[in-house]
Amino acid sequence: MALSSFAAQADDDTIKIGILHSLSGTMAISETTLKDVMLMLIDEQNKKGGVLGKKLEAVVVDPASNWPLFAEKARELISKDKVSVVFGCWTSVSRKSVLPVFKELDSILFYPVQYEGEESERNVFYTGAAPNQQAIPAVDYLMSDDGGSVKRWVLEGTDYVYPRTTNKILEAYLKSKGVAPEDIMINYTPFGFSDWQTEVTKIKAFGSAGKKTAVVSTINGDANVPFYKELGNQGIKATDIPVVAFSVGEEELAGLDAKPLVGHLAAWNYFQTIDTPENKAYIEKWRAFTKNPKRTFNDPMEAHVIGFSMWVKAVEKAGSFDPDKVIDAMIGVAVPNLTGGIATMMPNHHITKPVYIGEIQANGLINTVWQTPATVVAQEWSPYLEGSRDLISDWRHPLACGNFNVKTGKCGG
Amino acid sequence: MISTPLVRLATILFLLFCSTMARADAVDDALAKFFDDKFPRTEQGIDALAASGAANAPAILEALGDNRLLIDQADHLIVYQTTGGDLINAKTGEKLAGVEAGALKKVRVNNALRRAIDAAMGSLTLASPDPQKRLAAADAVFKARDATALKALDVQLAHEADPRVAEALRQARAAIIVLDSSTPSADRVAAVATLKARGDQDAQSLIDETAAKTDDPAVKAAALDAMAAIKAHLVWLNVLQNLIYGVSAASVLLLAAIGLAITFGVMGVINMAHGEMVMLGAYTTFIVQSALPPAFSQWSLAVALPLAFLVAAVVGIAIERLVIRFLYGRPLETLLATWGVSLILQQGVRSLFGANNRQVSAPDFMSGSFDWAGLQITTGRLWIVALAIIVFAALQLALRATSFGLRMRAVTQNRRMAAAMGISTSRIDMFAFALGSGVAGVAGVALSQIDNVSPNLGQGYIIDSFMVVVLGGVGNLWGTLLGALVLGVANKLLEPVIGAVLGKILLLVCIILFIQKRPRGLFALKGRAVEA
Q1: Partner A contacted by B42 (CB < 8 A)
Q2: Model ipTM?
Q3: How far from each other are the two terminal CA atoms of chain B, in whole angstroms?
Q4: Residue B468 pLDDT > 70, yes or no?
Q5: Do B307 and B288 touch, CB atoms closer than 8 A?
Q6: How would you class B396 by CB atoms within 10 Å of its CB: exposed for 0-12, middle for 13-18, buried for 19 or more?
Q7: Averaged confidence pLDDT in chain A
Q8: DSSP state of A151
Q9: Integer CA distances (angstroms), A322 to A2, A327, A329, B451, in order
Q10: By C-alpha distance, which of A240, A353, A407 is closest to B114?
Q11: How far is CA A190 from CA A60, A379, B34, B114, in A?
Q12: What is the mean pLDDT of residues B218-240?
């Protein structure tokens, strides 16, 4: 099978790369810009002469924020367009929906967004953060003196798999740090929630118990804007009750007046404001490519930059575009990230990442106030959850297993 | 010892000179700490500035908090930028010329530093001549509970003329001494009483803490007593607060649904593109706001209201003439066709304006909130309630007092009879659709203030709008009003108890049961809808 797909590709001197991001529907707000980044990366690589002497060609499809359509479009990309690799997906639901397709047709997916962990698949490379590369350091920071020695926690999220799993991990983690159950409030709201008056009042009441309180927000994209507006309206300042968000980036802040939000926090593995020559050069390149001097650059975009250069390196290392060979060659590939460090693909198919905590500035950009001293290795199986504690993932031969149970010594959870 | 006036004068002058020197040195030392731009050093600088009590300290600290304090590496100066954009040498207070603000490095601050700045500003501006500033300072001291501010508080209290500021000062004083075990017991009991009179959540949390920590039996008893009183008061306040939120939610529902009540009620058309009319209204607001010169930005919403009505009404007429007209009496086809139209409109706006949210800012008089007898009222929401009432009254007037309204009601009640009496039902349909769509556009202006202006804006409201109309009874505006109120208030009363997700589910179940019992909603109307 590998030979036949190779033969099909060798017909002409181009290699196809699939881009599977929603360009319409609710997720278009976040995903459209990732498609643009991929187009820039492919264009740039072609100017350098392509990969293994072949030109790259982007195949863009629009799964329209419709989860089953993601699977259909993925199948179309792999079987009909014969792409060698796919870069795509944003929500965890969309990733879960395409997984069986990638397994069945044995192709490669690069997934660029922070997610809830508890997964490691042979055909997927996760270039976004696992919970220990984002959520846990953020909570650690808030517990420290610098972060205000927070003692009481509101875990506020949108009602779907990512916030629910992340909050489960965070709750277990906080309890392991000696936080009493009555000092943790967990709350969920529906997708696209817009009337935050009651919720914010509840947070305010919870925060006036004489202990320093913080909100850990896993609120999804669109609902954030009215949430922050309401915080501003009710006069909750970051100095009183700071909110740390895991899915609010420069892109989301662009739609909102940031002045009442100054000091609220965001935890990511990349900020546009990080002052390194690589980052500056990249943002300039990006703005020239999009012909927009104000375009922002964010964390999942950096993840695609890293993922793409890793793929190029792995293909060169394997000397082939064959997915099986590339998957094996990927592990151990190291490329520079945009923040002055090195990202390495680990045997669990996740990459090493630095963690940055930033505060929102009046101009809508985020300034780093804390960062990890070195890059952090992802824990895809959380040690704080029952059932995932004993699992490890190692895709190197001979183990080659994504959920090896060290207690029972068996692969398969 | 010879003491001539001259010697005395010289001594005084010398002492004065020394003290100003010392002050200048203190400020200089404090400013020197800002050069490193390291958080712990900057905090020392803030403390030193606060301790110096220098006249220019508040201005420097304010600039630091607003990210306007800059480091001029070349000239080794700390400068701050005024809100007007001038650069001022922080040490001397002189204006700096020939330096670009963009070339200078900002002194970074984090939340811990902002808290330190707020506390320092509190004690520094307690004696400010502006009563508003004194009030803010007293509040800052109340929050920071900075014991070093106690002396300044007492000095200011002794000659404070403004009763509101005096009350705030007393509360700030109470907040400091209530937890201080070295204060006499009677004073602390009095402090508890002051806090009890304040009666809000901040006071409650302070009293809770006092009751938990103190060993003094008198203070503890007073604190426990005050705690019970405040809690009972807060329970009532909470219910009232939720009712207010409910009314505010109802006003949003009413605005979104009332246009639908006209199209769905009068014409029996299930218009799935109704939400997109709302979205068009919101985008009209965005366009108006970007097109208006900044000087008129306060008026942007007033300009946007009639324009949004027009835009949505014109699009509504186009949809009615081009699509719906051919599908009258075929509800399923109308539903599918209008749903298609809604998708086309969404993607059209997305292609035109991009997928990102557009920022619509609120005019000054519509942002923030105010406190009314302990209740939090958001100004923007209050305006939306007002708009909903005005729109409702205007529509009632249009339907009751104009000849168009009369004809429309006639068509609603019996289409064929109305046609037989010489009313052009097709024209009435068109105008009714335009009216319904236009009102949706007006709703869009209001929603642009509280929700995302994105292509998906309308989708979030279409289901709720249908719920309101169906619950209220098709074709009756009073029913729509009542439906919106019931849904809004019930939602907001349920939300704090069982959460937003479960609350919504429970409400939907209740509506289904209710519709089973009364299929025509709260107010049933005789008319075409009934016959159909």
Answers
A1: no
A2: 0.79
A3: 114
A4: yes
A5: yes
A6: middle
A7: 89
A8: -
A9: 6, 9, 11, 48
A10: A240
A11: 31, 29, 45, 33
A12: 86
